[in-house]
Amino acid sequence: MSSERPRILVVDDVPLFREVESLYLARIGDVRSASSAAEVRALFASEPAEVVVVDLHLPDEPGDALCRALLAAARCETRVVVVTRGEANEHARAVVAGAAEVLAKPLGRSELVNAVSRLAGELRGQPRAAVREPAHFWVKGRISTGTVQNISRGGAYVAAGWLPREGTDLKVEFALPGDGTPIVAPARVMWRRYEAESGGFGLRFVALDAHTQDHLTRFVEANETAVPATA
């Protein structure tokens, strides 16, 4: 990791949110801020940032559209964090736009700092919890079963006999240990792994509401363990 502090750009049209997020992140990087997409474009043209934290609801351009534009124009390794109001459809918009991380307001200090630190290269992978729970997944009307063995707030690893192709969109259902309420979420297959007797695939959750995001985050934080970064 470079000894230089990462450049971070915080984008929000609400002064309080912008100032608080900038204050949180100032200890880990050099922070600039902007209140609109137009201001971001001007700043980014002269000095791109390693990590951009952008609100989905900007006054002059949707945050997901800005995310696409920044990723297309980046002169360096830029990662984008999109901040939503916690709706599942907003989460999906951010994922489709290419956001490396999706967070929901209100933002917790550790949640924001950890996400940006990880994307800036200070941390490796999202926190994960090792589990072993049955799962069902649906692909174009086909129902298959597997076992969730590794879970993060953004995705999961599923061991299964039948492996959908990379890029496949599906719906997955599973329950966390000791929790009778199932999590049902649209997801996308990011990669597959083949082994001698079985295999599995890594999922990224496409659309999560704020309650489900918070539920997953609390579980992973309480049960985090050293597991391979397979999701």
Radius of gyration: 18 Å
User: Count of DSSP E strands?
Assistant: 11
Beta-sheet strand percentage?
Answer: 25-35%
Strands side by side in the biggest sheet = 6-7-8-11-10-9
Regions with pLDDT < 50 over 5+ consecutive residues?
none
Q: Based on CA inertia axes, which overall geometry fits?
A: elongated
**CATH first level of the largest domain:** Alpha Beta
Along the chain, the helix and strand elements come as: EHEHEHEHEHEEEEEEH
CATH 2nd-level architecture of the largest domain? 3-Layer(aba) Sandwich
Q: What structural class should be given to the helix and strand makeup?
A: alpha/beta
Summarize the structure.
With 231 residues, the protein is α/β, with parallel strands linked by helices. The chain contains six helices and eleven strands. Strand 4, helix 4 and strand 5 form a beta-alpha-beta unit.
Descriptive notes:
- The chain folds into 2 domains: 7-119, Rossmann fold, CATH 3.40.50.2300; 128-223, Thrombin, subunit H (Beta Barrel).
- The protein has 6 helices and 11 strands.
- The protein has helices spanning 15-25, 37-46, 63-73, 88-97, 109-119, 210-223, and strands at residues 7-11, 30-34, 51-55, 79-84, 101-104, 128-139, 142-152, 155-160, 169-174, 183-194, 199-205.
- A hairpin with a 2-residue loop joins strand 7 and strand 8 (155-160).
- The chain is elongated and about 50 Å long.
